[in-house]
Design goal:
Layout (H helix, E strand, L loop, with lengths): L1 E8 L4 H20 L3 E9 L8 H11 L5 E4 L2 H4 L2 H13 L4 E3 L4 E2 L4 H34 L4 H9 L3 H5 L3 H9 L4 H10 L6 H19 L1
Parallel strand pairs: 1-2, 1-3, 3-4
Antiparallel strand pairs: 4-5
Length: 218
């Protein structure tokens, strides 16, 4: 597997320089023992409570771009402390990135308390997704009750190739607005049909269309 080695110390003290070098050397040995290919070694001096670290965003970019498969750290505190540690654990867990440590001489074993918190965070996210989906369904139901015919819009989508499909359908926006839907409800309906546009974007496009229509009639 391809791995990122991450080393961190919290201060600029000279003694910490030695710790940083020791982490690097020990993690290099660990990666070799596990037959990992080291993609990069990230070293930084920053508080573990601070999530706004260049090194953290750099390693997350490697994983997001699928340029590395796992992370090697000395122990869990090197990644972060407190809420920052939990947030990073959760993010890496969502990305399916395993963490290997010197402490465990292999894959990280999350303690019971952290595991419980991660389970709670995961459950909350799942309910957030359910609420979001319910909002889409409620918006669609109200649109249909107000005379909107989703079949007409879906057939139009099937005829639209590539980038055109992603464009905001102004005719549908106007029709939904005439049916007394709010711009937020319109955004919810369109998202359910595959159009990812914000309430502000829909409002702006509607205003542009209406202004253009008024100018052509004057």
């Amino acid at each position: 597997m391809r791995t990122i080695i991450y080393c961190r110390v919290s201060t600029e003290k000279e003694t910490q320089e030695t710790s940083l070098q020791r982490q690097y050397e020990e993690l290099t040995v660990l990666a070799k023992e596990l037959n990992f290919t080291v993609v990069d070694c990230i070293q930084e001096k920053a508080s573990g409570y601070n999530i706004d670290r260049d090194g953290i965003f750099k390693l997350l970019d490697y994983f997001s771009n699928q340029e590395a498969d796992c992370l090697c750290i000395q122990d869990e505190t090197r990644l972060g402390r407190g809420n920052t540690k939990i947030a990073l654990f959760h993010q890496l867990q969502k990305m399916n990135i395993p963490i290997y440590t010197i402490t465990h001489r292999g894959i990280l074993e999350v303690n019971e308390a952290d595991s419980m918190v991660l389970n709670i965070v995961g459950a909350v996210e799942e309910y957030q997704r359910k609420i979001h989906n319910m909002k889409i369904k409620r918006g669609m139901r109200r649109a249909v009750q107000n005379g909107y015919n989703p079949q007409e819009n879906l057939s139009h989508i099937n005829r639209s190739p590539g980038r055109e499909r992603a464009e905001v359908p102004i005719e549908e926006i106007v029709r939904l607005r005439q049916n007394k839907l709010t711009f937020q409800e319109i955004a919810t309906v369109l998202k359910g049909l595959g159009y990812d546009a914000s309430k502000a974007t829909i409002h702006r496009r509607y205003q542009e269309y209406m202004n253009s229509l008024n100018e052509s009639q004057s």
